[in-house]
Amino acid sequence: MSTKELKRVLGKTELMGIAIGQIIGAGVMSLTGVAIAMTGRSSNIAFLVSTLFVLAAAIPLVFVNSCLRMRGGVYTQTNIFLGKKWSGFYIVQYIVGSISISMFAISLAQYIITFMPGVSVKLVSVIVLTLFFAINYFGISGAAKIQKAMVFILMSALIIFAGFGVFKIQPGYFSQPEFMTNGVMGIFQTAALLVFATGGAEVIVDVSGEAKNPKRDIPQVVIVSTLAVALLYGVMCTVAAGILPIDQVANKTLSTVAEIILPRPLFIYFVVCGAIFATATTLNAKIGTCTKPVLQACSDGWFPQKLATLHPKYKTPVYLYCTQNLRQLRWRVQFLWLN
């Protein structure tokens, strides 16, 4: 089989759902408090500066993807510019790095069991991973639709937090000493940390082979999704830092402020949909994209050709999904057993 046989069904909205779901992770719930501790109420500026870092790093990717359909994603890009040897090195470390998918499943399970006391984390994490494996097994089109629905719910939760809170920001937001508590250098140091929260849109490069018009859509989606999420983060951070004294929100999660500004039903909605769906969208995006570079590497001879077999109907890499799922289950069980 070849990546040429993948179904080209992802339009701009589907790619946007994957990109936003990958960018918004559960980290924003906790990193906002860390950012406030590092630079005070100028943490919103740090979020925007981090976005400039992310976009600057994405410039080569944007230009290359505006010219080529790279069916193996960044693996193909590495092959083009550095040669076969280095693309092989890249795909090996890429596979090792994909082990982190199991951590997303564990995190999601830990959020879920707070509403299901007494249920095993191992059991829930296995069910979660199997569910998203099944969603992606039956085709990228269905997985992308589910992703869009989850992203819509996630974004609604974050917008509710920002919308309710923006009218409760206290006067004197830019007053010293709570603004720029560590000067300009503090903003840049915080921005460097927040790259982990504002980056991630480049993951859609790995589904270039399934995009309808990747040369037009992928560059646009990378830029637009990153800027849109960064602006939302900036407003949320302003709310988080502008209502309570800094010492009450520094190193705290967003739920500290959310509990004050939101009615109880909306607070529960924010906590559930903000935390659970932030992790779920990231997990679904990773599972849906991470097999495509490996699929191309199989076609190039780095791994057994049998692993590149596509489902005759759904055109998904069935063997890679199965081996990936089993590998993640093994690592998850080992991690939970050791801890």
Order of helices and strands: HHHHHHHHHHHHHHH
Which percent bin holds the helix content? over 70%
Whole-angstrom Rg: 21 Å
**Overall pLDDT:** 86
Question: What structural class should be given to the helix and strand makeup?
Answer: mainly alpha
Number of strands: 0
Shape: globular
The CA-CA distance between the termini, in Å, is: 41 Å
User: Which segments are poorly predicted (pLDDT under 50) over 5 or more consecutive residues?
Assistant: none
Q: Tell me the number of helical segments per DSSP (H or I, 4 or more residues long).
A: 15
Major sheet characteristics: none
Walk me through the structure.
The protein contains 15 helices and no strands. The chain is mostly helical and 339 residues long. The model has no long low-confidence stretch (mean pLDDT 86).
